[in-house]
Design goal:
Number of helices: 1
Shape: elongated
Structural class: alpha+beta
Order of helices and strands: HEEEEEEEEEE
Strand order of the largest sheet: 1-2-3-6-7-8-9-10
CATH class of the largest domain: Mainly Beta
Helix content: 10-25%
CATH architecture of the largest domain: Beta Barrel
Strand content: over 45%
Number of strands: 10
Largest sheet: 8 strands, antiparallel, barrel
CATH topology of the largest domain: Porin
Length: 232
């Protein structure tokens, strides 16, 4: 009998059994490959970044400096004098933030005391101007760069304006407006640090001091820093 007649049946049975074994192993190996692929993806896919959430209620303390200007006409005939009552300011504030993506908006109220006072001699008489406190109710709107917030702010203002001479004084609480801007940085999930500028205009004050009529235009510049605590 030829050799090839005996070899081919042997090879035929070998290949048939090999195909049977591969057919049995394939269904078992495919799920394992998919599981391994899923595990590799979970190990090497970077986690999505956590973006800081600015929304919620907050309260804080502020401190800084004020530059208050009283453009005053006093006496008859009137004499013009500019009184610059520069000093320290400190106070409290609180508010609520809302966010829509990187856009942050909200409302804030604050109250501060000031120490600014200035005196000028008008026709031989000392005239003193000062403002003891101011408060604002403002809207805020800004853009968040993760843990940093750049914002603009504006709204209503109220404050105390006083003009005095040795013969007497006129003291009024006035209402006006304010506008400003600031930047705020999150130190952690609870505390933020801010720097803020406000321009405040309380309008004109008219009255009589020691029998002399006066009219004073009041505005101020405030530059302050604040530490904020954010509630849940």
């Amino acid at each position: 009998m030829p050799v090839h007649a005996t070899i081919w049946p042997v090879f035929g049975r070998f290949f048939a059994r090999a195909f049977m074994v591969c057919g049995a192993i394939w269904p078992l190996s495919a799920p394992q490959s998919a599981a391994a692929q899923s595990l590799d993806q979970s190990l090497f896919t970077p986690a999505a970044p956590v973006v800081y959430d600015w929304s919620g209620a907050y309260a804080g303390l502020s401190a800084g400096a004020t530059w208050e200007t009283f453009e005053t006409l006093i006496g008859t005939p009137s004499t013009r004098v500019n009184l610059d009552a520069d000093g320290f300011s400190g106070g409290v504030y609180g508010g609520m933030n809302f966010s829509s993506g990187p856009v942050v908006f909200g409302v804030e109220i604050d109250a501060s005391f000031t120490t600014g006072k200035d005196t000028a001699i008008v026709s031989g008489v000392p005239v003193t101007a000062q403002s003891d406190w101011f408060s604002t109710l403002r809207g805020r709107a800004g853009y968040a760069l993760d843990r940093y917030l750049i914002y603009g702010t504006g709204g209503l203002a109220a404050g105390n304006v006083s003009i005095g001479t040795p013969a007497g004084s006129a003291n009024e609480n006035r209402f006006g407006w304010t506008i400003g801007a600031g930047v705020e940085a999150a130190l952690n999930d609870r505390f933020t640090l801010r720097g803020e500028y406000l321009y405040t205009d309380l309008g004109s004050v008219d009255g009589t001091v020691g029998g002399s009529p006066f009219s004073a235009e009041f505005d101020s510049h405030t530059l302050r820093a604040g530490v904020t605590y954010r509630f849940d």
